[in-house]
Design a protein that fits this description.
The complex is a heterodimer of chains A (516) and B (57).
Chain A lengths: L6 H19 L4 H34 L2 H11 L4 H19 L4 H12 L4 H11 L7 H14 L3 H56 L8 H14 L23 H5 L10 H17 L3 H6 L4 E6 L2 E2 L5 E2 L2 E8 L4 H18 L7 H32 L2 H13 L3 H16 L2 H19 L3 H15 L4 H10 L6 H29 L6
Helix pairs in contact in A: 1-14, 2-7, 2-13, 2-14, 3-5, 3-11, 4-5, 4-6, 4-7, 4-8, 4-9, 5-6, 5-19, 6-8, 6-19, 6-20, 7-17, 7-18, 8-9, 8-18, 8-20, 11-13, 14-17, 15-17, 16-17, 16-18, 16-20, 17-18, 18-20
Chain B lengths: L4 H28 L3 H21 L1
Helix pairs in contact in B: 1-2
The chains are: A mainly alpha (516), B mainly alpha (57).
Chain lengths: 516, 57
């Protein structure tokens, strides 16, 4: 990776290039390119409002020490390192991914693992591999909404379908966390627990997607994991007692015993209060799906209309009514804002409020989101220009001819490549989402399945993105030793991606009707 | 082209403002009014934002 361009740089130059190619080689006029770019910015607004609101909410709770309180409570739920690895690396980091993004799960979970006695390398690897399944529906569903919007599949079709395909990946992530912690011995010890909790998490993800609340389809399974692992790990039926130490091949936990016994300092915030805005959000997300509420606010929506465009080469982009429509109670951003307002009121009444914290969180949110904002905006514009001028269709025809029947197996690896290159599942879905679906259509195979595994590959693949590994290395004190972390996690991430590819291949071969 | 860190920071803010201006301009130029001059201006603003993004990030 010699050419380490940031997303805004890559996106900006790609848009300029795409516009030139569209106008010189694909017969697009200035109006067509401008219309496609405006459509791209409509999509961007839909996705980024979710991201801005969720990051603001996280920053607010974090500044009031709520995240610290949740983390410490989670760490105290168990003394067995295997259970701690699953609780923090698989459950807590995924919950954090569900509500925010930008590598925060790794930045929060990895130091927590070190605090309870894990080695830096193992802490980084566990938090990176453990939360990969939660990225697509994470950040309040921003990556999911991206793939759904660019592919134009109805939310209620692609959401539950993708959630089902995520199930084996979610369970496998838990098994891998156990393997990183304790090798095959750790896997054997925790397998019943991981299977039971992983199934419950997968069901929770599917249920949220099915109920039309994909924005909480990672955070709710994350909470299920915290509760499930925290309580079920106390039963010897589901987790065997530890008999040996390290068997993972990663190395011992230096100073584990002393660090694990370290006292926990007094907290200004309780875990329950830290969870409060997220609990309110979950409640609001469910209430918003109730029939009477839905119909009462159905008219409260904003979206722009776009006309049909036809290039000089005859490529048609259909007209759009209310494109990337933001509905008042069916879009995560307004729900997040209401949740934040309620939480702020409770914090104020409970004396937990700190003067200036809202403004501080807002400033932090802006500085954290600038790169992503420009990156997503330029990349989405580029992707829509390519799609609306026929470039993507031409590329898809080439890929379909080259890959043929093994395309479903390759598909999640394309998603992984996108995340590796851009450091973001959202950007990967923007870059390759339309291309993958067009290729599936060329091949006459299930486009919904292909769109799903594109995002699953992007989700787990984001764990090996240089940006995220750098965050992990920084927070565990391994700066300059990123290659050691890569060496450990790459095999797990590739295996998770392969699972997604095999799922798609098997479904398309054996149940083609179900994949449409 | 190497820019100083404060200059890059400033250009990032300009790029954010630029993209916020480009969106309505693109829509009004290409869809609402359909004027060639306005569309060209909108594309020019978007192009400048993209160049700024490439330089400042």
């Amino acid at each position: 990776m010699r050419l380490r361009w940031s997303a805004p740089r890559a996106g900006g130059l790609s848009w300029l290039l795409a516009v030139h190619i569209a106008m010189l080689a694909f017969g697009a006029s200035g109006t067509i390119v401008a219309t496609a770019s405006a459509k791209g910015l409509s999509l961007t607004l839909f996705v980024l409002t979710i991201l801005w609101a969720s990051v603001f909410m996280f920053n607010l709770v974090d500044r009031l020490k709520g995240i610290e309180a949740i983390g410490r409570t989670t760490a105290r739920l168990a003394s067995d390192p295997l259970v701690q690895a699953l609780l923090i690396g698989w459950g807590f980091s995924s919950f954090i991914q569900g509500v925010t993004g930008f590598g925060v799960p790794v930045a929060v979970a990895a130091p927590l693992l070190i605090m309870v006695g894990f080695s830096p390398l193992r802490a980084a690897a566990i938090s990176l591999v453990g939360h990969g399944w939660a990225v697509t529906f994470g950040s309040m569903g921003s990556s999911f909404y991206t793939i759904q919007l660019v592919t134009k599949f109805p939310e209620q079709v692609i959401g539950p379908h993708m959630a089902l395909l995520f199930a084996p990946v979610t369970i496998a992530s838990g098994i891998m966390v156990a393997h990183i912690q304790g090798g095959w011995h750790g896997v054997r010890r925790s397998l019943p627990l991981v299977l039971v909790v992983g199934t419950a998490m997968s069901f929770a993800m599917w249920l949220m997607a099915f109920l039309g609340a994909p924005q909480i389809a990672s955070s709710v399974p994350g909470i299920v994991a915290l509760i499930g692992v925290g309580f079920l790990a106390r039963t010897p039926l589901l987790i065997k007692p530890s008999v040996t130490g390290d068997a993972s091949g990663i190395g011992p936990e230096p100073g584990a015993a002393t660090q694990r016994a370290a006292p926990v300092t007094a907290k200004p915030m309780t875990a329950m209060l830290g969870f409060l805005p997220y609990i309110v959000l979950i409640a609001l997300s469910i209430v918003a799906q109730l029939g009477p509420v839905k119909s009462a606010v159905s008219g409260l929506a904003w979206g722009l209309d776009y006309p049909e465009t036809v290039t000089a080469d005859g490529f048609v982009a259909a007209a759009e009514q209310g494109y990337a429509r933001i509905r008042l109670l069916n879009h995560p951003a307004p729900l997040i804002i209401i949740s934040v307002a309620i939480a702020m009121l409770v914090y104020r009444l409970g004396g937990r409020w700190k003067r200036g914290v809202a403004w501080e969180s807002l400033r932090l949110t802006y500085s954290q989101s600038v790169t992503t904002t420009l990156g997503v905006a330029t990349m989405v514009m580029m992707a829509v220009v390519m799609a609306d001028t026929g470039m993507t269709t031409l590329l898809a025809q080439g890929i379909a001819r080259a890959s043929g029947p093994v395309f479903p197996l390759v598909s999640p690896f394309i998603g992984l490549l996108g995340s590796f290159m851009t450091g973001s599942n959202t950007n990967s879905n923007v870059m390759f989402g339309i291309l993958q679906v067009e290729t599936a259509r060329e091949l006459g195979i299930g486009a919904v399945t292909i769109a799903s595994v594109q995002s699953i590959g992007g989700s787990v693949g984001s764990s090996i993105a240089p940006a995220k590994v750098l965050v992990a290395a920084t927070f565990v004190g391994m700066s300059g030793k990123e290659s050691e972390i890569w060496r450990v996690i790459t095999r797990y991430v590739l295996l998770l991606t392969l699972i997604a590819g095999l799922e798609a291949l098997l479904l398309i071969c054996l149940l083609p009707a179900w994949t449409r | 082209m190497t820019l100083s860190k404060p200059m890059k920071q400033r250009l990032r803010h300009v790029a954010v403002v630029g993209i916020a201006i480009a969106f309505p301009l693109l829509y009004v130029g290409a869809v609402s009014l359909g004027g060639a001059g306005l569309t060209a201006a909108a594309l020019a603003v978007t192009g400048i934002v993209c160049v700024l993004a490439a330089l400042a990030f």
